[in-house]
Design brief:
By secondary structure, this protein is an alpha+beta fold. It has two domains: 1-51, no CATH class; 81-154, no CATH class. The protein is built from two helices and five strands, in the order E-E-H-E-E-E-H. It has helices at 55-77, 140-152; strands at 6-8, 15-17, 92-99, 121-127, 134-138. It has a three-stranded antiparallel β-sheet. The radius of gyration is 26 Å and the shape is elongated. The chain starts with 5 loop residues before the first strand and ends with a helix.
């Protein structure tokens, strides 16, 4: 094991081991950000400075923990999954939306090609439990219908 000093990049959390002959790195070889005290915060804690959180914070943490447990339980129960485009967490299936004739106007391509998707159809709605982004996907039965209609050329 080496006794070379190591540093951790404050930007990407990569451990940077530097050569004693060359000296410490000025930039992170992983993310290329500067490694110095610019925009860095150094915190030293000892046991005397630590205090317990007030009761109001405990209640908020309890509510947050209950929310996280509820989300985790729903994610374990659902069959379909979708990753949030914004924060990359797993999304929760919120329900199904029916789209009828008056709610969707398909784009008519030029020529004799049929419209890509014709109403009525159903969408599965997903909600991200972290950032609350909403996403939709075509229901399984309508996916099959879409593939069949396009494979027949009608």
């Amino acid at each position: 094991m080496s006794d070379n000093p190591a540093a951790v990049c404050p930007w990407c959390q990569t451990e940077i081991v530097w050569d004693e002959e060359i000296g410490p790195e000025e930039t992170c070889p992983h993310c290329f950000n500067e490694i110095n005290d610019y925009r860095s915060l150094h915190v030293k804690l000892d046991g005397d400075d630590l205090e317990l959180l007030p009761d109001s914070d405990d209640e908020e943490l309890t509510e947050l923990n209950a929310y996280e447990l509820s989300v985790k339980k729903r994610l374990e129960q659902q069959e379909d999954g979708m990753e949030c485009l914004r924060c990359h967490d797993e999304m929760v299936v919120a329900g199904e939306m029916k789209v009828g004739e008056g709610q969707f106007v398909p784009v008519q391509p030029s020529g004799e090609a049929p419209a890509f998707l014709k109403p009525p159809f159903k969408l599965n709605m997903f909600v991200c439990p972290s950032c609350f982004q909403v996403s939709y996907s075509l229901s399984d039965e309508d996916r099959v219908r879409l593939v069949n209609s396009w494979s027949k050329g009608s």
